[in-house]
């Protein structure tokens, strides 16, 4: 195999692995935003779940149980965020930022308490297809949770676009007053959307830990939650484009990791900021506000 | 035994602090009738209806539905009890399709095909033509109202509440709406509550009428046994001389000052996309020009341009012969143009600032030293304006939110006129005001004209145009399509001039 093809395969491979956690979380953030919450705590959801998944995997000896725990922990963060911002009407950004700081601090402390060890879910590799040139290894040799995306993406789309729940939460995100008049429980729908967001962001974070890396280290999500928010904005609040955004950011991250191996020497600290720079640029160039939910980030309380 | 009334309210009382919004209100609603509920803004109509929908809870009193006492905890439960409301401020979600909005009002799984077919069938049955796949945001006000009504009717309500349904409709659309309501009542035996402060509407469309004033029922009668004059008197609590708006006088007297030849306001080729298409209009000092047309023909864009909210794509605005640089904030106001915007809550006032602050906010320089606002001068000025314009407020320091619509409108008018403008633009000035407040507003606008101010009234209300203006221009799809002296205008001619849309 030529070296170009090999390099490409390496970059694609790690690009998909780096994009997957973003994609899981983006499916959640997308739902939260359609319901009207610009959910900043997606970072906390991912990081908390990443820690929790490794910890639970250590306690139970099962990486899959860890993955599940990550989902639950993410949902827990989502329910806390929901209760604070859509029941007691604390400013959603303040809640999000505080949760992010809290989870970062808490996990940074807990990781020093004891050795969490290494836990990783099984790898699957699809016979036959894995031998395809270039695309074979990146697409068909993966830790199994990646393939959950195949079900979760269509499910997310169906829930939002086709189910009554989705119709009601879109109404809550576009025009909460009208939705309320119609008899929709706006804040309940928003809390539920945050729960979904937490579960999926939790899955993303857990996948990062027990799926890809196999261990937890301090601040291991390193702002990926913010990239997810950027992806939804880049995607113009459309699921397909949001996932394209995740892929682009994932590939940029992979490229950053691959550059030294390819013989380029760039300041590594500078490189770390590359995906975020790219996210800024992408939002600047491709964002349309056209499909922005009408009441995004606006709290709803019935006027008296 | 006579059938139980569809709805009976007994002694409904609701207090907000010291204010009694509803004071022992009794209201009986029979099946098969259109019941008019008439009252000024703040009389307690809205509170009563919010109680019926479960958005508020009454302090005392009971509600019977088909003879059974019920407690209503929210819109969802109201709907389950067969009480549904068509809102004054629409309860539609713009980015969603018509069928999605209709589906929102129902329950169970969303079956796209079934809902769309249902919309088509209902549209046919009631004569409310509408495309189920259209996005609600792209519809005209009249069409939106149809969607709203369809959404309600699909729930099969026994009691249908219509809150000021015609405030954004043209005459033809209003007539069509009332025909549909009559069908709903006669053929399907529903009960309709029609909330309005338009007397002509109440007398033509309802079977019985209840008038409330200051939270109490002051009149309850068969519509045929009453007159507009009596209704107006009961509603306001005194004799009213509003002229054409209550249908007592066909025309207002022409203003004293003759129109001078000097153009105080000249709009040349104003174009905004979307909205205005090469709009040209001239208003002379001392005249009141009406800009008449069905909602959604560019009036809002024009209002935005004249408020300085939108910079037009092409065209100029000249005040007293000098072109205004529309890109500079405050240029219009500095040039001598005052505006009473269409939506005063969004563009006219700051509801949470005090009455005094709202009164002086555009001319803070007049009440400030070099750096600080002089509170004493501010209050003195505000007091003078409040007295001059008859603004009734608990105190000048209370938030503007606590004032009635009529008084809020007076605050805007007082503030705009305090700058001694050459031109006053009033967009839908009487919308949401009660009869007494409208009477006062009209008198003030006429006085402006006789003081030599050029007045432009943008309105969708034919009565308003006929009662107030000396010349009328009609707008259709962002263009002026006709102009004539108001004395030669009537509903038919103006209807033709507005592209047949009126």
Automatic annotation (TrEMBL), chain A:
Transmembrane as UniProt keyword: yes
InterPro entries given in the database record: ABC_transp_permease (IPR001851)
Chain ranges passing through the membrane: 49-78, 90-111, 144-160, 193-210, 216-235, 242-262, 268-286
Keyword Disulfide bond found: no
A molecular function (GO) term: transmembrane transporter activity
Localization, UniProt: Cell membrane
Main location: membrane
UniProt GO cellular component terms: plasma membrane
Topological type in the membrane: Multi-pass membrane protein
Keywords: Cell membrane, Membrane, Transmembrane, Transmembrane helix
Designated name of the protein: ABC transporter permease
TrEMBL record, chain B:
Keyword Nucleotide-binding part of the UniProt annotation: yes
SUPFAM superfamilies reported for this sequence: P-loop containing nucleoside triphosphate hydrolases (SSF52540)
Entries under PANTHER family matching the protein: CARBOHYDRATE TRANSPORT ATP-BINDING PROTEIN MG119-RELATED, GUANOSINE IMPORT ATP-BINDING PROTEIN NUPO
Keyword set, alphabetical order: ATP-binding, Nucleotide-binding
Pfam families: ABC_tran
Protein name: ABC transporter
Keyword ATP-binding: yes
Gene Ontology MF terms: ATP binding; ATP hydrolysis activity
């Amino acid at each position: 195999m030529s070296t170009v093809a090999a390099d490409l395969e390496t970059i694609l491979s790690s690009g998909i692995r780096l994009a997957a956690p973003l994609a899981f979380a983006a499916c959640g953030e997308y739902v939260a935003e359609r319901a009207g919450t610009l959910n900043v705590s997606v970072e906390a959801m991912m990081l908390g779940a990443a820690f929790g998944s490794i910890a639970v995997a250590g306690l139970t000896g099962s990486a899959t149980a860890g993955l599940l725990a990550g989902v639950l922990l993410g949902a827990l963060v989502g329910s806390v965020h929901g209760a604070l911002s859509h029941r007691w009407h604390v400013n959603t950004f303040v809640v999000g930022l505080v949760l992010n700081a809290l989870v970062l601090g808490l996990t940074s402390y807990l990781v020093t308490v004891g050795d969490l060890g290494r836990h990783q879910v099984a790898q699957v590799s699809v016979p036959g297809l894995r031998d395809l040139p270039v695309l074979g290894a990146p697409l068909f040799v993966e830790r199994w949770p990646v393939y959950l995306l195949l079900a979760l993406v269509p499910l997310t789309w169906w829930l939002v676009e086709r189910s009554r729940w989705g119709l009601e939460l879109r109404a809550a995100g576009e025009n909460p007053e009208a939705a309320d008049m119609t008899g929709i429980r706006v804040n309940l729908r928003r809390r539920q959307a945050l729960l979904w967001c937490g579960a999926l962001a939790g899955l993303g974070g857990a996948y990062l830990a027990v799926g890809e890396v196999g261990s937890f280290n301090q601040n291991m999500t390193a702002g990926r939650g913010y990239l997810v928010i950027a992806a939804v904005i880049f995607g113009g609040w459309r699921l397909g484009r949001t996932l394209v955004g995740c892929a682009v950011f994932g590939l940029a991250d992979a490229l950053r990791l691959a550059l030294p191996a390819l013989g380029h020497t760039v300041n590594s600290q500078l490189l770390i900021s590359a995906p975020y720079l790219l996210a800024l640029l992408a939002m600047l160039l491709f964002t349309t506000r056209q499909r922005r939910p009408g009441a995004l980030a606006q709290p709803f309380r019935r006027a008296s | 035994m006579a059938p139980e009334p569809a709805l009976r309210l007994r002694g409904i009382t609701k207090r907000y602090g010291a204010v009694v919004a509803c004071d022992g209100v009794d209201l009986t609603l029979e099946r098969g009738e259109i019941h008019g509920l008439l009252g000024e803004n703040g009389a307690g109509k809205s509170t009563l209806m919010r109680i019926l929908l479960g958005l508020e809870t009454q302090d005392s009193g009971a509600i019977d539905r088909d003879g059974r006492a019920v407690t209503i905890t929210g819109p969802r439960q109201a709907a389950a009890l067969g009480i549904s409301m068509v809102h004054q401020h629409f309860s539609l979600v713009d980015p969603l399709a018509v069928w999605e909005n209709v589906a929102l009002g129902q329950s169970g799984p969303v079956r796209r095909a079934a809902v769309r077919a249902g919309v088509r069938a209902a549209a046919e049955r009631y004569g409310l033509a509408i495309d189920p796949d259209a996005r609600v945001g792209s519809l005209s006000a009249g069409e939106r109202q149809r969607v709203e009504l369809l959404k309600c009717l699909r729930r099969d309500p026994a009691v249908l509440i219509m809150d000021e349904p015609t405030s954004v409709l043209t005459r033809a659309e209003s007539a069509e709406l009332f025909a549909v309501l009559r069908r709903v009542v006669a053929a399907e035996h529903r009960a309709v509550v029609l909330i309005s402060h338009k007397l002509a509407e109440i007398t033509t469309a309802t079977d019985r009428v209840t008038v409330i004033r200051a939270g109490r029922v002051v009149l309850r009668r068969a519509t045929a046994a009453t007159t507009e004059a009596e209704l107006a008197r009961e509603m306001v609590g005194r004799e009213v001389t509003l002229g054409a708006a209550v249908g007592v006088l066909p025309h207002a007297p022409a203003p004293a000052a003759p129109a001078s030849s000097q153009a105080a306001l000249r709009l040349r080729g104003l174009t905004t996309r979307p909205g205005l298409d090469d709009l040209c209009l001239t208003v002379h000092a001392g005249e009141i020009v009406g800009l008449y047309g069905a909602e959604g023909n560019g009036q809002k864009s024009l209002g935005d341009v004249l408020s300085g909210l939108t910079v037009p794509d092409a065209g100029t605005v000249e005040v007293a012969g000098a072109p205004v640089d529309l890109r500079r904030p405050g240029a219009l106001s500095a040039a001598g143009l005052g505006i009473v915007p269409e939506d005063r809550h969004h563009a006219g006032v700051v509801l949470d600032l005090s009455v005094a602050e709202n009164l002086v906010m555009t001319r803070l320089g007049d009440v400030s030293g070099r750096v600080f606002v002089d509170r004493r001068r501010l209050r003195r000025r505000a007091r003078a304006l409040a007295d001059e314009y008859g603004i009734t407020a608990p105190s000048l320091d209370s938030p503007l939110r606590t004032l009635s619509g009529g008084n809020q409108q007076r605050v805007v008018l007082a503030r705009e006129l305090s700058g001694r403008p050459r031109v006053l633009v009033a967009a839908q000035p009487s919308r949401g005001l009660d009869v007494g407040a409208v009477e006062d507003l009209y008198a003030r606008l006429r006085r402006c004209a006789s003081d030599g101010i050029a007045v432009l009234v943008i309105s969708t209300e034919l009565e308003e145009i006929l009662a107030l203006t000396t010349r009328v221009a009609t707008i259709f799809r962002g263009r002026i399509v006709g102009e004539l002296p108001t004395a030669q205008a009537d509903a038919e001619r103006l209807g033709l001039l507005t592209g047949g849309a009126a």
